[in-house]
């Protein structure tokens, strides 16, 4: 990459470090790209920030993203949690913070309940009683 192209990419905020993974999945005009990936041995999980480009479509639901996130991190989808999703107004792009745990026992119960509640699989009252 030339110096001018590098500076232009940095100015636009589109530069991806060479260690990042390129396009992982492409289905129905939705592409997923891993922007940052690291291992966290203390919490026994892999952490990633992914960018979902969804041109011509609304922000995808968590259930739609979880399969592609699991493929990107090479993890079981039962062990993947979408912690946060950020969308910019007017741009068909969403950033998501993903955690992929190594074992089911390593997953905090509070994060699992929060994820299920956000996906509509668990009501707020049920989460309070559990």
Give an account of the 3D structure.
The chain is an alpha+beta fold and 130 residues long. The protein has a domain at 16-102: Alpha-Beta Plaits, CATH 3.30.70.3370. It is built from 4 helices and 5 strands, in the order αβββαββαα. A 5-stranded antiparallel β-sheet has the order 1-2-3-5-4. A hairpin with a 4-residue loop joins strand 2 (30-40) and strand 3. 16% of the residues are buried. Mean pLDDT is 76; it is low at 6-26.
What are the salient characteristics of this protein?
five-stranded antiparallel β-sheet, Alpha-Beta Plaits, 130 residues, alpha+beta, 4 helices
Radius of gyration: 16 Å
Order of helices and strands: HEEEHEEHH
Distinct helical segment count: 4
Largest sheet: 5 strands, antiparallel
Number of strands: 5
- What proportion strand? 25-35%
Instruction: Output mean pLDDT.
Output: 76
CATH class of one domain: Alpha Beta
CATH topology category name of one domain? Alpha-Beta Plaits
CATH architecture of one domain: 2-Layer Sandwich
State the shape: globular
Beginning-to-end CA distance, first to last residue? 53 Å
**Biggest sheet, spatial arrangement of strands:** 1-2-3-5-4
Map the helices and strands.
Elements: H1 3-12, E1 23-27, E2 30-40, E3 45-54, H2 62-73, E4 80-87, E5 93-101, H3 109-119, H4 124-129
Antiparallel strand pairs: 1-2, 2-3, 3-5, 4-5
